[in-house]
Design a protein that fits this description.
151 residues, alpha+beta
Length: 151
């Protein structure tokens, strides 16, 4: 009886190594890995995350991005408002944890003048509202609208 080698295990290992090797490239391509570009004057909606991203964290990012994109298209186009996704586990971004007093993955509104944050607000209710997309989007849009008007 002739034994044929089991090719499934080496093939599976090769696929896993390729996937792990390209994980950083995928993260960079979707805008989540690199440090954000220098923030210009205006209001920035930050989504802060870490290296480990659970399904709820990804949902918060998605809902917040949709809220900003659908509610503030003109402001985004005009540069009055910008969206930034920042990995606070990256060494260059660790300062954000202290700067914005982050305790978990967060959506933060920040007003920047002359390259300096002059005020910010952590939208801490996103965790409570994540199970209801309509309420979540309404909350983010309402808070962002109010933040823009107060500037």
């Amino acid at each position: 009886m002739s034994r044929r080698p089991n090719l499934a295990t080496p093939l599976l290992m090769a696929c896993l190594l390729v996937a792990l090797g390209t994980a950083g490239a995928v993260a960079a391509a979707d805008g989540t890995a690199p440090a954000p570009a220098a923030v210009t004057d205006g209001v920035v909606v930050f989504y802060f995350h870490g290296n480990v991203r659970c399904a709820t964290c990804r949902t918060i990012e998605s809902y917040a991005h949709d809220a900003v994109r659908t509610g503030f298209a003109d402001e985004l186009d005009d540069g009055v408002l910008s969206w930034r996704v920042v990995n606070v586990d990256e060494p260059a971004n660790k300062h954000y944890v202290e700067d914005f007093r982050l305790v978990t993955r967060s959506v933060v509104l920040a007003e920047v003048r002359n390259g300096t944050v002059v005020r910010f607000e952590n939208l801490d209710k996103v965790w409570q509202l994540v199970r209801n997309q309509a309420d979540f989007v309404s909350y983010v849009q309402s808070e962002t609208r109010e933040f823009l008007g107060a500037g």
